[in-house]
Amino acid sequence: MFTIVDISTITLILATLFIVLPLLASSIKVLKEYERGVLFRLGRLVGARGPGLFFVIPFVDSIAKVDLRIMTIDVPKQEIITRDNVSVKVDAVIYFRVDDPIKAVTKVTNYMYAVSLLAQTVLRDVVGQVELDDLLTKRDEINKRIQGIIDELTGPWGIKVVSVTLKSVELPESMVRAMATQAEAERLRRARIIQAEAERQAARILSEAAQTYEENPKALRLRELQTLVEIAREKNLIIVTESSSVVGASISAAAAVTRQTTQAGK
Question: Are 227 and 154 within one domain?
Fold first, then answer.
C-alpha cells in the first residue's frame, strides 16, 4: 500500500519529468553537414554553430538555420532595349552559395529575395549597355560581367556568386526576318566569291596548259586523239587524218552520217 507521502513523491517526480524532458529535448539541436546555425542569446549574436550536435538554452537562445549548398535563382524574363535600340527579352539563372552564415542572417532580411531583385537590376543594366551582335556572340563575356557585379554587391551579405548563365534571348519577328535575310545574302556572297575564285584558278590552269601545248605540239596532238576516243564512246564514226582542220571536218561529217543512219534504222 502506498502512503500519501509516497504518492506525493511519485507525482512530483512525474511532474518534474514532464517538465524537464521537453526542456532537455528542446535544448538538443542537430544540424546536417551542409547546415549552419546562427545562435542568438537574448537577442544578442553569439556565433555560428554546427554541423553536428550542440546545446542551446531553452527560452533564452534562438537559432536561425542557413543552408550552405549551392542555390539557384531563375531570373524572370526581362524586356530590355540594347545599345543599338533593339528590344529583346532576356532571362538568366544565378548560381550562388552562402559563404558567411552570420552575415547572411544579420546583414539582409531575406538574402534569396535580395539576390533575385539585384540580379534583375544588374541584368537590365548590363544588357542595355551592349549591342545586339555582342549579346548574341559574346555571351560568355556578358555572363562573367554580370557575375562579377552581383558578386561584388552581395559580398557584404556573405554571399558568393558561383555562376551566371543567360538562358535565352528572344528577338522581335521583324528582327528575326531581317537577320535571316542578312544571313542568306551573306551565304550568297560567299558562294559567288567561291565560284569566281574557281573560275580564276581554272583560267590560270588553262593558260598554263595552252602554253605547254604551244611549246610541245605533240602533246596537243595526243590531246586531240584522246578527244576522238571520248567521242567514239558515243558510237560515232571517227575518221583520223593528218591535218587538224581536216580532223574537225571529218568528225562533223562522220557524226552527221551516224545520226542519219540511226534515224533511218528507227
Answer: no
